[in-house]
Amino acid sequence: MKPLWRVVTVPPTLQGEAAVRFAEGARRRGAEVLEVRTDLHGPEDLDPQALSRGGPLLVSERGRPLPPAWVKAARYVDRDLTVSLDAPAEKLLASHHAERPLSTAEALKLWDCPLPPGALVKHVEPMDQPGHVAVLLETQSRLIERFGAERVTVLGMGAIALAARAVLSRRNVLEYVAMGGEWSAAPGQRLLEDAFRDFRAPRRGPARLGILGTSIAHSRSPRIHRQPFDRIDLPEQGPVEALVDSLLPHYAGFAVTSPFKLRLARHTHSSLEAINTLVRRDGRWESFNTDVEGARAVLQRLGGQETFVLGDGGSTAALRAVSAEVGCALRVLKRADITAPLSGAGIWTWPDRVTPPESLHFDRARVAVIAYGAPGRRIATEILRRGGTPLMLGAAWFVAQARRQRELWETAT
């Protein structure tokens, strides 16, 4: 058994040949096991033999019984230990999905049951508090003591569980990951590309890096920084302060993006209005704002003239910090201030998930876009629609601030 198998679940919208093509694509991108579940597909929706030709097939019973043809084609058969463990011994994956967070003692008691030698063990709990990661790690260690490191998987579930899953993955046998896009098999899953990049990277010790934000599937940070680097996508009102505190033993640093730059500045008692970088030093988080490097690069590209700024979040704080240095007067506009078409040079700092006011129009203004990738392209389209000319400066901002982040993370203790 390899130390980790990356598992991707077939989406419920795909059947027949479409499901086979999905499986082929997932395996090309680094998935090792394909899962099909009875709550997502019926017996006639899929050809299990075709799905198993490219690699191991995991079939999971969720409410409805497993079709015999699925069990025959499968390498692993997931059965809930509280329902039935009726599966070929050499194929059994015994699982339990708890309805609430459990103490380690409660979790271990569930597993006081006879299992066939070699059967895999999967224990899953919902996470309602970030600090529960410590309990899950203890549960994982105790289950490994009981069943062996080559058999155990422990997972957290829920909107704040992604970072816990990344930490737990170091000792898990199975890692359930999402392909990306609009659908994932469970809340809190890592992206396949992040898990595969982590797997291929040389080991550099226990500490991880990551990026904290909302709607950050497009982020390029995991591609350019040393691994493991986790994309931790949280709800906008998520408990990010408690999360970073609970992850202090496991992470050397974080990049911080919208909408958490101001909240984490306050939480870390920073003298800065907003921060975008956390570095672990001497058992605590130290905070920095390397966005000033990106802000300097963008303002210099705009030529140092008076510049209007749309949005007043963490990026605007960085622009304020360097505007005098580059000889640029900033005019920060609140939404209510926008009543007439804007001209000259400007910077759009709103994330693309923020709907701009209907009153926003441009009179041939040159507007810098500091997002990149698909969000940057969507913002550029909006600027064109409203009469402006977009300047795609997101990459310049990103590279300038990332260089400084890398230097800071190298100083982590």
UniProtKB/TrEMBL annotation:
Coiled coil (UniProt feature): none
Gene Ontology terms for molecular function: shikimate 3-dehydrogenase (NADP+) activity
GO BP of this protein: chorismate biosynthetic process; shikimate metabolic process
Name of the protein: Shikimate dehydrogenase substrate binding domain-containing protein
